[in-house]
Request: fold
Amino acid sequence: MEIIKDIKGMQQRAKALFREGKTIGFVPTMGALHEGHLSLVSRSVKENDITVVSIFVNPTQFGPSEDLDRYPRDIEGDMKKLQAAGVDILFLPDVNDVYPEGYRTYVTVEELSTKLCGEFRPGHFRGVATVVTKLFNIVRPDRAYFGQKDYQQSVIIRRMTEDLNFDIQIVVCPTVREDDGLAMSSRNLYLSSEERKAATVIYKTLSEAKKRLARGESFRKIKEFMQESILSVPYVKQLQYASVYHPETLDDITDEDVNIYKGKKVLLAVAVVMDSARLIDNMLVDL
Ligand code: PAF
Reply:
């Protein structure tokens, strides 16, 4: 596996690969890699001649009171996993090269960035959209891979890709879960063993809400159930949102709209602040 640290070097390598007619699959990450990331890598390896993975803990997507400093980092372990997964190039840019002195340009995907997580993490999606734009311009991929666990992020990146005419196919891969259903996330490492047990309520709640949707229960009742269910376990400090949403606009949907959604998909999504980590999860459900 080739390791490239400088931006110009990565751009030149990407141009050379393009001239050779090779397709590039790209998996942007912040490291602390788990099976979820590796599922994106394995899909990219199957679908492209060359797979590039970036590891960059992007400061602009963290709020001032968030976990940038303690975000898990394990570069040695990550490199072993990527090597074993058949990655061709690991791109490891330095924060001072990505955001040099005088940096002033940001990308904002309007409306979508202020809903759901955006309401509780102001500026988060501006940071994500900015760094992903920069990485797309550096790596020049044909396809880029994201996990469904960060559903809102994937909707925003699709919108941005279309709006800014990036000639890149956005591939969203299914959420990878632990045996008890907890969605894999680098932040699960923050959880104590008691919190880890309590956190299984998220998947249980989403699965039960899915069943209730299939039985035709009202959106109002399902929303009530989701909130009660999550708030019934210990270590939940704050339930930020739990409801049924339009999968593209991310608007909360009400029972008046039920006929519009017959035969279509709706999004069940949850964000919970536990004592030591903020966790999100979602399910797309056919009505
Ligand atoms: O999903 C992530 O890990 C990050 O938000 C991303 C896409 C790598 C941008 O920093």
About this structure: The domain at 186-286 is CATH 3.30.1300.10 (Pantoate--beta-alanine Ligase; Chain: A,domain 2). Strands lie at 2-4, 24-29, 50-55, 89-91, 143-147, 169-173, 236-245, 265-274, 278-286. Residues 28-30, 58, 61, 128, 131-132, 150, 153 surround pantoate (CB under 6 Å).
